Amino acid sequence: MNKQTKVQQWIALMAMGLGVFMGLLDVTVVNVALPTMVRGFNTTFTDLQWVLNAYTLVYAVTLMIMSKLGDMYGRKKIFLGSLILFVIASAINGMAPSLIILDIGRGVQAIGGAGMMSLSMALVASNFEGKDRGLALGILGSIIGVSSASGPLIGGYLVEHFGWPAIFYVNVPFGILAVILTLIYVKETPSYGKNHKIDLAGMATSAVGLFAIIYGLIVKESHPHWSWFDGRVSGLLIGGVIVMIIFVLIEVRVADPMIDIQMFKRPHFLGTIIIAFALGSGIYAYNAFLTALMQNYIGYSAVQTGVRQLTISGWSLILGPVAGILSSRFSKKWMIVGSMVIGGIGFFAMAYAISPTVSFVELWPGMVLMGITNGMVNPLLNTAGMEGALPQEMGMVSGLLNVFRQFGTTVGVVGLGLIQDAQYEAHLNSHLPLINMPAKALNGIKEALVNAGPFSGHTIAFSTRMQQLPFAQDLQRIVIRAYDSGMTAVAISSGVIVLIGGLGAALLMRNRMASQDLELKQHQ
């Protein structure tokens, strides 16, 4: 292979990396812009929730559909179309004159983001061979890790210096560059099954089922005191599960299914999606709680928080290429398992560090261990996921890994949030009665703190009105310790999730040679 071809390959990787970075960054970057948007649109945080939810929902729902279209009609074509759609939607979002236009634009932007993310791994796998493939997938894993954790830093800087539209406008020049590089340097893949019928029933049921389940979890997250049996929650979740069962029944019967259900019978593939889910529900979900701790309770600004969180995301830049190189020499399975154990230790260190006087000085050792896990596992997961997959399956494998990573993040945010709420409320219930104040005032304050939840309870306890009360210091001490109790439980729970993921990998994943032998037997 000549030098020019090598150069073209790495430029192609740059194009795909830009797309992945923008697509994943836009999952989190909007969070830090919400206070500015509230003022800009003269609205409330509740009304702005759909700026977040529209992207999360549509992104998760369309990942598999875009993967299948790429497998059928050529991954470069669908990747390029997704990239162009993403850039156009970003420009519209920056100019959005109303909230409804911004919500719609975010949904369209998510379709583009899903197409870029779901096909990037398969395109890298088909544009590289041998050891270069492992290194390239490792670098792509670095980009995934960095983009998922750098939202507060990049978003905070852009909003602080240029206003909220900048978080969308910044995608336009980089997106145009990625379009040009993709057109020139990315190699197209064969159009597998282009003469097959599109599985419209499968696409529709998978979209409806995933939408109902994820939206049900979002509703529960927004209303933590609603019961799981409340029809507004259980109706969505049960309905979504029923539709997904129908989806599976359709897939095992149609001639050209959207997903080959037989893929889920491969232990190695099951191991990789368990790791993807554990990464989402453990590490990525925890990032939301860590950001709230650093901003709402320690008092760092968005930019200061983002800089400190480089302790986590920075490792992806260092370890991604290293993991890619090592993956060709050592067992990816045991490297992943060992890295997940390191992450578990990191979460337990975080739980131990949390206290009323906690600062970055106490948090950074645990954050470093979390960063090492994220930096190692993501690139290894990309490479391991492709093992045992036929060329025509690579797009769907990439899509499924991303679906489970995103679904894990949604489940983790809801599940960890409920754990935090329960611990926070339990601490308030047991300690507030110890304050010497009238019962009526006690009940009113407790109700306000519980309704505000752990994230906003600090604001109430330290408000100007509350500071004037004789028992203010006692109340503030209890609120902080209640929050710490919830955060400790969240960190321990995340550690357990990561360790369970590592156990699943140890039991199900295969070593490289074993995986290849299994692949040959399955497809002879």
TrEMBL record:
Keywords: Cell membrane, Membrane, Transmembrane, Transmembrane helix, Transport. It is found in: Cell membrane. One of its GO terms (molecular function) is transmembrane transporter activity. Its main location: membrane. This is Drug resistance transporter, EmrB QacA subfamily protein. It is a multi-pass membrane protein. Belongs to the major facilitator superfamily. EmrB family. It holds the Pfam family MFS_1. PROSITE patterns: MFS. The chain crosses the membrane at residues 12-36, 48-66, 78-102, 108-128, 135-154, 166-186, 198-218, 233-255, 267-286, 306-327, 334-354, 489-509. One of its GO terms (cellular component) is plasma membrane. Residues 12-513 form the Major facilitator superfamily (MFS) profile domain.
